[in-house]
Amino acid sequence: MEKIKVIISNRQKQVKIPTGVRMLIRRCCHAVLQLENFPVPAENSVSFVDNDQIREMNRQYRDKDAVTDVLSFPMGEDGHYDVNHETGAKILGDIVLSVPRAMEQAKLYGHSLEREIGYLTAHSMLHLLGYDHENGGLQRVRMREKEELVMSQLGLPASSSYTDA
Fold first, then answer.
1. Distance separating alpha carbons of residues 90 and 84, to the nearest angstrom
2. What DSSP designation does 101 have?
3. What does R_g of the chain's alpha carbons equal in angstroms?
4. How confident is the model at residue 79, as a pLDDT?
5. In contact, 76 and 53? CB cutoff 8 Å
6. d(Cα 157, Cα 111) in Å, to the nearest integer?
7. Is 6 helix (H, G, I), strand (E, B) or coil?
8. I need a labelling partner for 103 at 20 to 30 A (CA). Which of 92, 123, 158, 161 fits?
9. Any residues with CB less than 8 A from the CB of 26 and at least 6 apart, and which?
């Protein structure tokens, strides 16, 4: 597996990002690409936002006027991606994560913020690689299995109190 460059930015001031979260996100992105046997260098961005910001983006880009936990903006389609001409890396896209929402969900599901952020990152990385769960069925099941496999590999398996709502 080739390298991945993950550009992380904090665009919110509501929550202090815990130590180690940026490294966790990088490890998570790498683990997803390794699981998917992604053969070439890649890059993507992850932005931390607050609930108001993600609600506005959800409304603007998905026509859903509601807070959500994470949004994925893939740059590729059917395995074809834009290329960073300076590095040769495939540009996978952008992940936008609401840190306050992640905190709420971690509490709701009874696990750590790190587990929640890792899960949301794995989920979004799979979206950047073309996976979709919106229609349910087998693709949703496969996506969920891959998310949990990555979480286990990173030492953040689902707790017994975790439920898929």
1. 6
2. H
3. 15
4. 83
5. no
6. 10
7. strand
8. 92
9. 4, 6, 8
Write out the chain's pLDDT in tens, 165 residues.
Answer: 568 999 999 999 999 999 999 999 999 999 999 999 999 999 999 999 999 999 999 999 999 999 999 999 999 888 899 999 999 999 999 999 999 999 999 999 999 999 999 999 999 999 999 998 777 778 888 999 999 999 999 999 876 444 444
Residue 102's closest CA among 146, 150, 142, 70? 70
Residue 24 is predicted with a pLDDT of: 97
Show the tokens assigned to 68: 């959500």
Helix H or strand E encompassing 95: strand 90-98
Q: Which of 51, 158, 62 is nearest to 101 (CA)?
A: 51
For the chain, give the longest Cα–Cα distance. Answer: 46
Contact 116, 106 (CB under 8 A): yes
- List the beta bridge partners of residue 7: 45
